[in-house]
TrEMBL record:
GO terms for biological process: urea catabolic process. It comes from freshwater metagenome. SUPFAM superfamilies: P-loop containing nucleoside triphosphate hydrolases. Residues 209-246 are annotated as: Disordered. HAMAP family: UreG (MF_01389). Belongs to the SIMIBI class G3E GTPase family. UreG subfamily. This is Unannotated protein. Residues 13-182 form the CobW/HypB/UreG nucleotide-binding domain. Keywords: Chaperone, GTP-binding, Nickel insertion, Nucleotide-binding. One of its GO terms (molecular function) is GTP binding. Residues 226-246 have a biased composition (Basic and acidic residues).
């Protein structure tokens, strides 16, 4: 049953390991969408505002609509455990440029375990890239398996790094239980159109009340050996650990 229609800004998170192309993807979306949607961007860097400066200098959006959160600590924390600084930045941006259609939130580059809290973003993209190795898609983790969209980026580099992007997409698809995967390259207009169509689809679903934020969860699916009784070596919330087998 859809909720009632909303004009509230759609908050879209972009996360994934350092260098996979998060800032570039956000610049791409601004370039493609800024003339038809009212946009804002929040970046997260650990010690600098480098990403915000890169995006401002890309000239794809009014620089005032791009704000940096300096996390000062593990970037994972600021998008999941204590989202206060990010939430305040998003809310300030939405108030200053109301009505915004879409706010893009870039996570600080982290490893394969980081995903956004659904209290911060309505929907999220996880990025990996072919240059990181063809086996990354099979390594799993909550972003790869359960983000709303998985992007396998930089497919143009496949021949240079000995990776078959189609195989990587197929490996990723097999761990995602039907959730979408897009093979993306900044040099492939058809792939950019596919990404833009996915974002427009999420915005439409958000507006008609049929988008329900899902938590990819901090835990990758895993199982314990038969002798492992009290989870002595780690604590976690089983409600968040889908596919958790004991
Ligand atoms: N060849 C290629 N390089 C890309 C592509 N997308 C991003 N890059 C490059 O990858 C590097 C890291 O990108 P960036 O967006 O800063 O990654 P981030 O750390 O995830 O934000 C930069 O040098 C980009 O120019 C792509 O589709 N193809
Ligand atoms: Mg970046």
């Amino acid at each position: 049953m859809p909720d009632s229609p909303t004009r509230r800004t759609l908050r879209l998170g972009v996360c994934g390991p350092v260098g996979t192309g998060k800032s570039s993807l956000i610049a791409m979306l601004c370039r493609e969408l800024a003339d038809r949607l009212s946009l804002g961007v929040i970046t997260n860097d650990i010690y600098t505002d480098e990403d915000a400066r890169f995006l401002r200098s890309a000239g794809v959006l009014d620089p005032a609509r791009i704000r940096a959160v300096e996390t000062g600590a593990c970037p994972h924390t600021a998008i999941r455990d204590d989202i206060t600084a990010n939430l305040m930045a998003v809310e300030d941006l939405e108030a200053d440029f109301a009505p915004l259609d879409l706010v893009l939130v870039e996570s600080g580059g982290d490893n394969l375990t980081a995903t956004f809290s659904p209290a911060l973003v309505d929907t999220q993209i996880f990025l990996i890239d072919v240059a990181g190795g063809g086996d990354v898609a099979r390594k799993g983790g909550p972003g790869i398996t359960r983000a709303d969209l998985l992007v396998v980026n930089k497919t143009d580099l496949g021949p240079y790094v000995g990776v078959d992007p189609a195989q990587m997409v197929s490996d990723a698809g097999s761990v995602r239980d039907g959730r979408p995967v897009i093979a993306l390259s900044a040099h492939d207009p058809a792939s950019i159109a596919e990404l833009v169509a996915w974002v427009i689809g999420r915005l439409a679903a958000h507006r008609d009340g049929s988008l329900h934020p899902a938590d990819p969860g901090p835990m990758a699916p895993h199982s314990h050996g038969p002798s492992h009784e009290g989870h002595g070596d780690h604590d976690h919330d089983h409600a968040l650990a889908a596919d958790h087998v004991h």
